[in-house]
Amino acid sequence: MTENRFLIGIDAGTSVVKAVAFDFEGNEVYVHEAAVQLHRPKPSWVEQDMNELWETVKDCLGKVIRNLRESKRELAGIGITSTGDGTWIIDQEGSPVRNGILWCDGRASNVIAAWHSQGIAEAAFEICGTSVFTGSQAAQLAWLREAEPESLKRAQVIFHAKDWLFFKLTGIISSDETDESLTMLRMPTRQYDSELFRIFGIEDLYSKFPTVKPTEANVGLILPSIAKETGIPGGTLVGSGPMDVAACALGTGAIEHGQASSVLGTAGIHQVIMSEPLTEPKMVGMTLCHGVKRRWLRMLAAMTATPNLDWFLGELGGQLLGGRAGSSEDKYKFIETVVAAVPAGSDGVIFHPYLFPGGERGPFVKPTARASFTGLSLNHSVRHLLRAVYEGVAFATLDCYRHMPIDPKVVYLSGGGAKSAVWCQILADCLGKPMSVPAGSQFGAKGAALNVGVVAGFYTSVQEGVKQSIKMDRMYTPDLSNTRFYQELYQIYQRTAERQMDLWDLRASILARGRRT
Questions:
Q1: Residues 237, 219: contact at Cβ < 8 Å?
Q2: Which terminus of the chain is more exposed, N or C, with fewer CB under 10 A?
Q3: Which domain holds residue 15?
Q4: Whole-number mean pLDDT of the chain?
Q5: Is 152 within a domain?
Q6: What is the DSSP letter of 419?
């Protein structure tokens, strides 16, 4: 019986940790979230304190557990997901060697530039189906070898973020196929490949990588000490995985060949589901294991999506908002009316949304890439710039789907950007495809909960879990006249980026020389 049994999904994101309780129908019964600090000790570095992340997860989990206990609800299992890529290292005592290095960190840009120019990236792609970028764990390990060799000497295990949390909850050292397929697995076998370690020059670190398991097998029982501290019932099943992008695909119902899932959050995550690993076109995006048996993901991930809007409103939005009082929700409703009033195409203003210090990774890898507005004249206002930001993220999405091996008929859309009806419609118009928004908001946590729910017998299969717990809330169909216009503007968007490639490198070179003088 499932009426009084619930699943908890933990989603440890880039800057926010969420613990979510779900019932059998997939309803979000209780959510607790808390911010986790990002550390930026140098301009291109982005780190998290591993112990702080663990304490934040433990606090969020404890609050949800107390809510379930007070309402006399039973816990069926706990699933964990977190950010992919990045580097998380523990020593022999199981303590962090250093802060975790995040996927959006840019310190390995010189490593990536060298690997792409020397053919190393291409050789690795033939095995793992992924074009390495600055957030790739292999590149960060190569950087650590040169800059912090003492960190690697102390390393007992090299983890990903969710693996660290799973270890703290269960005492088990392991990882799953979704995380490790981010450059370290041979795609058809879904297992580590020693040739990849050799290509990346980190073969001596092979023994420091955890056992890799299918996601549904990456499970354990809660440690008695943690159960006592948090109030989790002893013997509770804990599942680790899938990592966040695969968890979001699962949590929105994208599990069958040809389906597509986009997450408009900190990053723009765009993926199609495959029944076999398809790696065309070459040297574009990532080929990953899905958290579902015999399924893979072809993923192209733009480094930044909704932060483009956050930056714009923080730096340039004062004129629009004009000290407007009210809740954050009221402000965003007002912003929506402003965007809707500007014609499609922003009267020729085009924005390239490459704001993160690590540059861009999808559909091209360019650590020096930077954001820009083009097409400005005296006839434009801040309102045109605002709509151009919305459209720039949509063009980046189209750019990714244009480089997929499968052309999906509909896209399941989630993330903070999916809350915006205007943004959803712009995406539908730009891609020329319906955007289907599932009910709910915590899809990464739901994917992790679904995985452990199947293992715990809460659902008989992944397919039953999707059928029972995922419902579509809204559908946005494209305005084909806008689609034709956007397809033409996309050519300008794409060609402008291509012609700036050398200029981005020149800019970075000039700035580097300037800092040394």
A1: yes
A2: C
A3: 5-252
A4: 92
A5: yes
A6: G
